[in-house]
Write a structure and sequence with these properties.
Blueprint lengths: L3 H9 L7 E5 L12 E2 L9 E2 L3 E4 L9 E9 L13 E5 L11 E4 L3 E3 L5 E4 L9 E2 L10 E3 L7 H9 L4 E5 L4 E6 L3 E2 L10 E2 L2 H11 L4 E7 L3 H11 L4 E5 L10 H7 L3 E4 L4 E2 L5 E5 L2 E6 L3 H19 L9 E6 L3 E2 L5 E11 L2 E6 L8 H4 L4 E5 L5 E2 L4 E6 L9
Parallel strand pairs: 5-6, 13-16, 13-17, 14-15, 17-21, 19-24, 22-25
Antiparallel strand pairs: 1-12, 2-11, 3-10, 4-6, 4-7, 5-9, 8-9, 18-20, 20-21, 22-28, 23-27, 24-25, 24-26, 26-28
Bound molecules: adenosine monophosphate (AMP) and magnesium ion.
């Protein structure tokens, strides 16, 4: 049995290279950029007014109030204005080019226009460069504005639009297949017999993948039968990643590892000191990654977050896809038999200037219903058998931590 840290080290040193694809910029939302994007022009492309008002020479209004002749107008998209001479002002709108000869813009709020509109009294002095965003002050043509590895959100989409990048190179999302296995499993459109249960893990895993913006192909249930497992796994190996749930423990009918061997997969670990989820298996064949997650629903859920997410996130080009960790104060005494690092369900909330950790009643690693009340897991270190109320514990937040409500 290896430690969680060692399992992660093995996992991360066995990842294939991320693949890159060229996609329309709007489809790149949520992806990781796989190239440096440079500014294709100066931004702003001209000295730009930040306010509605008058473009003028700051030296003309040093002793404001001061009357100036209104000689023209500069509006956004209305062409480049002419040149301004001392004693003159040009009406200007937000986003419009500042005329040559002017060195500042005074806000319309600090002015009074004559009735004829030909003269304006500037009521307040203005400093040189006031209310002007100089050409190239946000980006200079040729400068890198987005680095490779940068996550693409709405602001990044706006930057791509600004510089006319209709297509960009982004890391490709891995293709993923999910297989469930177990003679006792039936699908939702079947009524379970008295000895059967409905397959829930495949749908839970598909949901966890969707939280990572990864769509998966669900290949159905394989019976506890080597040939059936083999067929499904072969199909699954056509994708980048195969996730199989169930059939990895020590039972008489747990055939998943046998079939991994038959298919020539290299098993990189098969037992981790984690609770729940000890029988987690990680294997590869060439560039294909295969995860065998335990069948118990919480074991599958937790080991997905601990092992599958870090691997898949990296295949998507992310540097640090792990779920966020933070510290919180445990609100109850907790006992466990030491030996495995435990990820236990908790409700974490902010109170009196700190994060409080309320451990949830947890019937077993099968108790997915109990787990629906969790927004985080807290970590029970493997060398401890007791945690006291008031201790500060490490938390692994669930992906929807910030939107979950009680
Ligand atoms: P296994 O890992 O195959 O030994 O299964 C462990 C436990 O998880 C058993 O109680 C199974 O019935 C249950 N289980 C296995 N696969 C699933 C699944 N896809 N959905 C819900 N429960 C499952
Ligand atoms: Mg089974």
């Amino acid at each position: 049995m290896i430690s969680v840290e060692e399992a992660l080290r093995i996992l991360l040193s066995n990842l294939p290279e991320c693949k890159v694809e060229r996609i329309p910029f709007q489809s790149a939302l949520g992806r990781i950029l796989a190239e440096n994007l440079v500014a294709t022009c100066d931004i702003p492309p001209f000295h730009r007014s930040a306010v509605d008002g008058y473009a003028l020479l700051s030296s003309d209004v040093e002793h404001a109030p001061m009357e100036l002749a209104v000689v023209g107008e500069s509006r956004a998209g209305g062409g480049m204005p002419g040149t301004l001479k001392p004693g003159e002002a040009i009406t200007i709108m937000t986003g419009a080019p500042v005329p040559d000869g002017a060195d500042c813009v005074q806000m319309v709020e600090h002015s009074q226009l004559s009735e004829a509109g030909r003269k304006v009294t500037i009521l307040k002095s203005a400093k040189a460069r006031e209310n002007i965003a100089p050409r190239g002050s946000e980006a200079r043509s040729g400068e890198v504005v987005l680095d490779t590895g940068h996550r693409i959100g709405p602001a990044e989409i706006a930057v791509m639009a600004t510089f006319g990048y209709c297509e960009v190179n982004a890391y490709r999302k891995p293709t993923v297949a999910i297989v469930a296995t177990g003679d006792e499993l039936v699908e939702l459109d079947q009524a379970p017999r008295s000895d059967q249960i409905r397959n829930s893990n495949a749908y839970c895993i598909a949901g966890q993948l969707r939280y990572m913006d990864i769509e998966a192909d669900y290949l159905g249930i394989a019976k506890d039968d080597k040939e059936e497992l083999r067929q499904k796994m072969l199909l699954g190996l056509e994708r980048d990643v195969l996730i199989i749930t169930g059939g990895v423990s020590m039972g008489e009918y747990d055939f998943v590892q046998d079939v991994f061997h038959d298919l020539g997969l290299e098993i990189l670990f098969s037992k981790v000191a984690i609770k729940p989820g000890k029988p987690t298996v990680f294997a590869r064949r060439g560039d294909k990654l295969v995860f065998g997650l335990p069948g118990n629903p919480i074991s599958a859920l937790v080991t997905f977050e601990c092992f599958v997410r870090p691997a898949l996130g990296r295949l998507c080009g992310m540097n640090r896809p792990e779920l966020p960790r933070m510290m919180g104060e445990l609100l109850a005494d907790m006992k466990q038999s030491p030996g495995r690092m435990a990820f236990l369900p908790a409700w974490v909330f902010w109170e009196e200037g700190g994060w409080k950790v309320e451990p949830l009643v947890w019937k077993s690693s099968a108790d997915i219903i109990g787990f629906t009340h969790a927004n985080a897991t807290f970590i029970f270190p493997k060398n401890r058998d007791f945690l006291s109320r008031g201790e500060i514990v490490e938390l692994m937040l669930l992906p929807d931590f910030f939107v979950r409500q009680r």
